[in-house]
Structures are given as C-alpha cells and as structure tokens.
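User: Fold this; tokens only.

Assistant: Input:
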Amino acid sequence: MASMAFFTIACGLPATNVAPDLWYLGDVNPPMDDMHRSAVLFLTAAAVAFPVYVLAAVHVGLTRRGRAYLILAGVAFAVQAVLHLIAQPFFGIMAMIPVAGAGIAAVITSGSIGNRLARPASAKLHLWPDLIIVPSVVALTAASIAQLGREYVPEEPNPPRTFDSSDAWERLGAVVDASIPVMEDVEGFQVTRGPYYADLDVCDDGAAWNETWVDLQIKYGFGTLEPSSDTNLAYMAALRASWDEAGYTITKDASAEAATGDASEAYGLVAVRDDGITVAYRVVRGKAELEIRSGCIRKVGAIDTVDPL
C-alpha cells in the first residue's frame, strides 16, 4: 500500500502538469479546455487514491479498520485507473503501470497479513492518521485545482462585440468591396490567390469555455512584389486614401521608404473599422496579400466558408 501511495504521487502528479502539454506538443493553438480537463482528472485521481493507500498502509495490522481500507484500496485503484483513461488513455496508462505493479505485489504478499487482519495489534481507534491525512489532502487538492484554474482559464474573456458570426461575412465583404476596387485601378493589378475564406479557431485563450468564439478571415494574394516597386507603392497609397475616407483607423503604416531591409518584415498598412474588423495589406518575403479579419466573435450556428459574397 505504501508503494502504491508513493507511485501515485511520483507518477500521477507529474502527469497533471506534463501530460496535457505533451499530448498537444507542437500544436500552435492547443485546446486549453481539454488540457485543463486532463490536468484536473489526473489530480483528482491522485487525490482519491493517495489517502486510501496511505491509510491502508497505516491501519493494516494495527486496527480493525485495516480490512475496510484494503477493500477501499481496490475501489480507489479502479477509480484512479478510470480517471486516468478518461484524462488521456496513453499517458494515463503509462502513469498507472508503476501503481499497478505495486498493487500486484501487494496482492501477492496479502496472504502473510491474514493473522494481522484478524487480530490487529491495537484495540484503539487511532483516528489521528485519518484526521490529519484526509483534511490535508482535501485542502491541497482544492488549492491545486484553483492553481490549475488560474493556469488554464483566462483571466479576461474576449471583449464584447457588436456583431456575431451570423452577419460577419457580410461585414467582411463590405471591407472587400471598399478595398479591392481601388487596387484594381493600379496598373499591374492581378489577383493570384483568393478569395480564401477561413474560420480560425484562435479564440479559446480569451474566452470562457462555455462559450464558442471564432475569428473569420478573407484573404487575397497579389503575386510577387518588391516593397519599393511602383505597383506596391500605388497599392498602399490607394488603400490608405480609401480607408481614411471610409473612416477606418490606420494602426500601422510601414511604407517601403521606412523598410529596414529585412525580408522577413511585413511592409504595408493595417486599419481597423469602428466595429473592430481589421484589414491589412502586407508584402512579406515578396508576397503581397490583403487580409480582412473579424477578430474574435461569438459563433452562431455553422460557419459557411464557401464564398458568401
């Protein structure tokens, strides 16, 4: 029982912090709600099993409650295993292997404690282990769950918006209608890619998990351009004038004249409408593109990414 308690702490608790990150290793936008759920389940499994194993180790052969704690240890092991499997099957099984090995060893050696179970060494209740271990585990578990909440649950939700996904495509389309025509007047205009529509799942970190958010995007590509080319400068001048006239707020103006010469830098314009929709024209590594994004908005029903315009 003592070995099972030791391996529960040594293998189960690290899984609380390590397993969720390993499960989504390499994922740029991992689902924080799933990671939080896995961490809480691993922690709960340890919190349920650990005190039972320790109290069984203490009471077996000492008090009459030893037999009851041995039975509870089997139940605790089953609950622990189920919670591990629900949390994450692969890492859950891996963390349970040492605990299961210690449990098998306990079963094999259980025959040697038959007399001690029938005739415990003390007639006293010996309540002090129970009164210390159980409240301590409950308090530590509550504190740990609160800490996991602070780690995975965002402190601030997404800010409220004046529209949702039900009319977002129409709003983004209005920005397209205000931007593409002014670019068409530039000599050398050509669309090489797009329009491309996407619903980006990048809003989980800033939203409550009982709410669904989405960031809608329309993107166009205009081929290969040098930041200092006449075509690019004409694009930027036309878009800047158009967006100013439409009342957009220019939040970034990185013209070719101000370029540092680093090909990884994005040269272009970024503007925001009053409703929070962002439009950006950029030349990155020689590729010119126009991107219109809604920002994080509430998802209402299914998202249609087929051309809605």
